[in-house]
Amino acid sequence: MSLHPVDQDSDNESYHSLRFLYPNFEAEDPEHYHPGGFHPVHLGDTYYGGRYRIVHKLGAGGFSTVWLARDECDRKWVALKFVAAKHSSSISDKSLRVLSSQVAVSNRARGPATFMSELGRFTFEGPNGRHLCLVLPVFGPSASELSTLFSCRLKPWLARKVGYQAAKALADLHAQGICHGDVTTGNILFTLQGFDHLNEAGVYRLFGPPVTQQLELESGEPTGPEAPRYLVKALDFLSLDFNFISSNTILVDFDQSFPISSPPKKMLGTPAEFLAPEVAVGLPPSPASDVWALGCFLFRLRGGLSPFSAFEVDCPVELVRIVEQTLGDRPAEWGDTLWDDFGYPTKNPRKGRHVAKLDEKRSLRDLVYKIWDDQPEGNVVNTGVPGCQKRLYISEDNEPFPPCFGNMIWKPTAVKVDNVYIYGFDDESDAMLDAMPKIAEHEAALLYDLLSKIFVYDAKQRPTAKEILDHSWFHSTTSPRTTPT
């Protein structure tokens, strides 16, 4: 979820006065359904004079929900992105429309698309205000969904390929004088192959009917017009015995983008774990801050999480502290930075305070060399070390992905170490996780070399996105793994 100061009041209020009962599947936060928030969408709804009809749900984020819709005029599938009312006016701003148009024109001129181009946009009035709706091509899951610590990992070759594609998209964007401003694994989407040939009956035959759950208030009262009658579980491409997901990706979401010559004065909405430290302390973003985010993206692709992610890293000040743990003391000129109660930099001495650095040190090299490699053969790791032989409860999380995805992704929770399935972090799991095969020595050395060039405090010393494209890590091949330590 992106961090935005504009959201602080509403978010804090939602934590203290929850209105809705949460569904038993992953969905958008129902607390976003209020005046100024999300628009309530139902299956079968039509928009833009009946042209677009809602068929299924594709996903949701902090500012929008995204739905699979049928374009009744052109008889094709599109994705409708419904932006929260309070963010619709800023995204509809003329400068952003010009920026999006500039990206689209250059994108077509350069050959194979590296950015998502809008198919159209419209606005409409709903019970929660006036909303912007973007009409987009349909794409598959994000790199975030396919590279998440225990639930899904990319195969090494695909991580490198997707990393290269992201760097290429960023280099192309910077060459046009534009910063993306929000380079994260959530904003790189996999393209689909063969999905356009499905009709509505084919979608339901393959994926099943949409899974819904009635939305209920904590009070037991019926929901009002500001909320949908039910929530919908997003369509799951990984649940099929047929693979629509290609190995190509595209860069999306230009809501935070800006001309390099005119950086924004307000802090970007980049999630803290991808935020460059100079931006975190209040300095203007730049192509170099995009490159820092790209470095976090590359580590996440290969390692399943960002190098600067932790439970506590949910605001700029915590990001700066964990970066300092990893890279050493921050620049002296940042030492006087004051932080408000939300963890954001402030120049008001009455609202800010200094924050002490963390004592424990972290090593970027160790983080890289401890990355797991590929799926263990047979999803089994035998250490030969006597230990706990308990059997954990077996659930669908322990089922590997269907064979059609075998060359692209693998599931850590389907792996057994000494007869125990991997399940997460706790005091008893450390030895299991350490036993997992580690990244190949030569690839670890290359990845560490690349990241150590990117993760530096001095933004001027970072390589450009174009220079990164020549790095050998992207072109490395599989070799024997390092011995677990």
Automatic annotation (TrEMBL):
Lineage: Eukaryota, Fungi, Dikarya, Ascomycota, Pezizomycotina
Residues annotated as domain Protein kinase: 52-474
A GO molecular-function annotation: protein serine/threonine kinase activity
Binding sites annotated in the UniProt record for ATP: K86
Residues forming coiled coils: none
Keywords linked to the UniProt accession: ATP-binding, Kinase, Nucleotide-binding, Serine/threonine-protein kinase, Transferase
The species this protein was found in: Pseudallescheria apiosperma
Domain of life: Eukaryota
Protein name according to UniProt: EKC/KEOPS complex subunit BUD32
EC assignment: 2.7.11.1
Protein function: Component of the EKC/KEOPS complex that is required for the formation of a threonylcarbamoyl group on adenosine at position 37 (t(6)A37) in tRNAs that read codons beginning with adenine. The complex is probably involved in the transfer of the threonylcarbamoyl moiety of threonylcarbamoyl-AMP (TC-AMP) to the N6 group of A37. BUD32 has ATPase activity in the context of the EKC/KEOPS complex and likely plays a supporting role to the catalytic subunit KAE1. The EKC/KEOPS complex also promotes both telomere uncapping and telomere elongation.
Catalytic activity: L-seryl-[protein] + ATP = O-phospho-L-seryl-[protein] + ADP + H(+); L-threonyl-[protein] + ATP = O-phospho-L-threonyl-[protein] + ADP + H(+)
Subunit structure: Component of the EKC/KEOPS complex composed of at least BUD32, CGI121, GON7, KAE1 and PCC1; the whole complex dimerizes.
Gene Ontology CC terms: nucleus
BP GO terms, sorted: regulation of RNA splicing
Any single Pfam family the record assigns to this protein: Pkinase
